[in-house]
Amino acid sequence: MPSDLPSFAASRALAETLLADHRPEWWRHAQAAAREAVRLAQLPGVDRDPLLHAAVLLDVGRSPVVARVGFPSLDAARFLRVRGYPRRVVGLVAHQLASDVEAEQAGVDLSGFAAEDSPTADTLWWCSLVADTSAAPLAVGDGRADTDGRRRDATRGAVARTRDRIDAAGLPVVVP
């Protein structure tokens, strides 16, 4: 694990502090996404530590303590960068679930954060999609996965690639 990456317990505690009281539904979502990340961290090409940290921190931008511009992935990325998180974790959080498409439509600039096209990024999207804010699993293709245009295409691509990796690893797909 890179020396500038805090322990997973510290990242989890940070997310809990920011979300549990203020946005409990998003704290439940982050916990469910992190549980799925732990399960899928063994997939080929997935970098375990960045995935686990990004999964548990992906919703911190929804906290009123962190929110500044009202675009959760940007607010989270800025907050995590100031806290000293590695660029890769910050970039994964900034560009989760094709947020760059949504940002462009909203006039928000995410270019200051590195985007990546990788098994780790795909798996983070999967982890977020299969956990709803009640922490119940979602069927892939429901809820947040059903968006319009380019975001839908990008999300479906990430889901398909991750599903292929899960199948190849012989792991069960844990969705209804």
Automatic annotation (TrEMBL):
Q: What name has this protein been given in UniProt?
A: Uncharacterized protein
Q: Which organism is it from?
A: Actinomycetospora corticicola
